Amino acid sequence: MSFAYKDHQIKLEQGSLALRRQGCADGPAVLLLGGISGGRRVYEGKGEGWWHGLVEHAGLLDYQLWTLDYFGGMGESSCAQVPSTVEEHADAIARAFERLGLTQFHAVIGGSFGGCVAMALATSAALAVQRLAVIAASHRPSAQAVMLRSLQRDFIRLADNAGEAQQGVALARALAMFSYRGAVGLDTRFPDGARAVDYMHERAQQLVARNPAQARQLFTHFGPALDRFRIAPQRLRQPTLVVGFDGDILIPSHLLTELCSLLPHCYGHETVATAHGHDGFILNTAAYGPQLKHFLEAA
């Protein structure tokens, strides 16, 4: 698979949204949306790009593949005010594609935060979405996830009061790392728990160092948007594939069972056996990518 792409900066009322198109220029349009820190650089050549495994295992370059940087996220989109809800993110994305003259999508695929945005887009009057894949996301937040994100904001507020603003963001990210990774995977990788602590803080500092202001917004803006997100699954009329992951403390299995029971057309519900918890959506693409490929090819 070759790496070629075209980037677009779409001017909207609140700012400029960065989009990327790659894959088959004449193929059916597929929109791929990632987590709060994931942007449009999902695939940058074989083995490169933060979600390259899914692109490869699901054959996504056979489609006109679109990705983007969220308003307020870690990429190259810019805005005067970060959207405060998932629905506002979805509305901005829909208007950007309207500006491009692209309103028909063969599929919208979303992982983590992107799964929530994908569900919101699937109900948008502006876009026609033929099928939907929801990966490591659900129609409402779990109480435990809301608790964790509340603690992240507490860390930031307390550090601000102590004059250590960046340290507060780093601690919020460290707690996020704890919630993203599965217990089995961490135990296997770090038999010495002290090394796991070092890893957690190293990864947190790396994110903050990229852009402290953007990193802060992941917790002060994206977190509350996830906490407030609710969508009635009955409104999702498209065939919908739902993928969850063992040990995911952010999106526990009972939430996905509830989601699937309420969907008008649940194409399938797969639970991936993984040691990696929530981050299985990035690290275990070989386990669910082929089913996603089949879903996209189904009549």
Automatic annotation (TrEMBL):
GO terms for biological process: homoserine metabolic process; methionine biosynthetic process. Residues 28-281 form the AB hydrolase-1 domain. Keywords: Transferase. One of its GO terms (molecular function) is homoserine O-acetyltransferase activity. It comes from the Bacteria. Pfam families: Abhydrolase_1 (PF00561). The keyword Ion transport does not apply. PANTHER family: HOMOSERINE O-ACETYLTRANSFERASE. This is Homoserine acetyltransferase. The lineage of its organism: Bacteria, Pseudomonadati, Pseudomonadota, Gammaproteobacteria, Alteromonadales.
